[in-house]
Amino acid sequence: MTLKEEYTRLFEKSAPRMSDDELFEAVLSSRKEDIMKNNENQPKKRVRKAVVIPLVAAFAAAVSAVGAVAVYSHNVNNEYAKVLDKQGYVQEYKDKDGSDVDQNVQAVKNELYEMLNIELNKSFECDGFTLEFPGAVCDGKNMIIFFNAVFDEEPNYSSTDRLFLNAKDYYYGDGVRKDGRSTLGAFEKRDGKTVYSGYTSLAGIENCSESLMINFTELNPSSGHDDLRFDVNLEIPLANDLAKYNKTVDTPSAPHVGLGNWGDWDLRGFEVTPLGIEFNMASEKETPDSEVLKKFWPKFPTIITFKDGSTLNLGNDFLYFNMDRAERTFWMKADFDYPIIVDDIQSVQFANAVIDMDGGATIVDIPEVVEKYPV
Questions:
Q1: What is the pTM of this model?
Q2: Contacts of 367 (CB under 8 A, 6+ apart)
Q3: Cβ-contact 217, 169 below 8 angstroms
Q4: Mind listing the pLDDT tens digit for each residue in 307-344?
Q5: Cα–Cα distance measured from residue 217 to residue 200, given in angstroms and rounded to the nearest whole number
Q6: Burial class for 339, CB neighbours closer than 10 Å (0-12, 13-18, 19+)
Q7: Phi and psi for 345 in degrees, rounded to 5?
Q8: How many CB atoms lie under 10 A from the CB of residue 126?
Q9: How does pLDDT run across 235-274, given as a tens digit for each residue?
């Protein structure tokens, strides 16, 4: 099932209960929803109130184990990069000569995971396993929370299974919500025990202050095994300077961008962070009906060019978008597969508009905007 087909299915099922952006976020969790339906009639493990213990103290003896040094000596660059590694790229990152570059390796080289890290070092004893939270990376808007599940006994999972870490609520209050970043993860051995390392991600961190409290309640296996139930309250401190690497670029000329059936818009600017980019548009013309958001998927270039001549092609599968017909505004947001250095950006191309970091706009010729996923 294509991404557009999943969006259409969820649109028919959920509209008008969900707004457009909420609906698209649900698309990226739809496969998980199908898995959960298969589990509805299966017996669930009892919920146990988890006991929090310091991560370093609990596992100091495991420092010499495979993969443990990165966590417990706080070498988060290697540890986080390993968890996020996609082993193949959706977003194309090329050097000035057009050769492929491993963006994850670049992020490690530039110590971006360390730069964005919020150190947590918290661990919770659950029923049959220990849930560890070494830390999270955050840019003040987006957050990726890393976790390890250390099993007391050998679990009955295949090496290709994924464990989805779920909270009690989809929305965490103060505008913070689960986002649609693809969830990866992998099993490995540590000191003779099986460990699953993965992550979950959030958006809307700018709406929260001082700290964020999340009530995590389950690990949901992709294979259809019973959910692992628990009751964990994780507090994440939020510093005032988390957004210091972000940059908002306004475009005084408001260049016109045509997005096919998604309408004709004036690009008012964008905000770029180490973890993503958001384009903001408005129109003085008639806006299209929101029905086109489920029927049409435009194909147009979205490319970040860096000062060294390298380029990051974001493709067209934006994780979030929302059109407000009353206000005649439209915004689209994409997450980066791996962190970038915002200060290294030279220009950003969105459809036929190339914007430099001072807000200057150049209009370029592009192929006709067509439907990416034809029926």
A1: 0.80
A2: none
A3: no
A4: 999 999 998 778 788 999 999 999 999 999 999 999 99
A5: 13
A6: buried
A7: -75, 135
A8: 23
A9: 999 988 999 999 999 999 999 999 998 999 999 999 999 9
| 148/131 Cα distance (integer angstroms) | 6
Show the tokens assigned to 324.
């407000």
314 exposure class (CB count in 10 Å sphere: 0-12, 13-18, 19+): buried
> Which residues on neighbouring strands pair with residue 214, listed in sequence order?
234
Asked if 298 contacts 369 with a C-beta cutoff of 8 angstroms, the reply is: yes
Is residue 351 a contact partner of residue 262, using CB atoms and an 8 Å limit? no
CA dist., res. 342 & res. 356, Å (int): 12
Residue 62: HSE in the Cβ half-sphere, 13 Å Cα cutoff: 19
3-state secondary structure of 335: strand
* Helix/strand number for the chain, H first, E second: 9, 24
- Position 60, amino acid: A
Beta bridge partners of 371: 298
> Taking residues 76-81, what's their average pLDDT?
92
Burial class (CB in 10 A: 0-12, 13-18, 19+), 51: exposed
Q: Which residues face 289 on adjacent strands? A: none
d(CA 338, CA 112): 9
Buried b (16+ CB within 10 A) or exposed e, 140-169: bbbbbbbbbbbbeeebebeeebbbbbbbee
Residue 141 near residue 203 (C-beta atoms within 8 A)? yes
Question: Are the C-beta atoms of residues 337 and 265 closer than 8 Å to each other?
Answer: no
Which residue's entry shows tokens 């009955």?
Answer: 156
Tell me how far apart the alpha carbons of residues 330 and 15 are, in angstroms, rounded to a whole number: 19
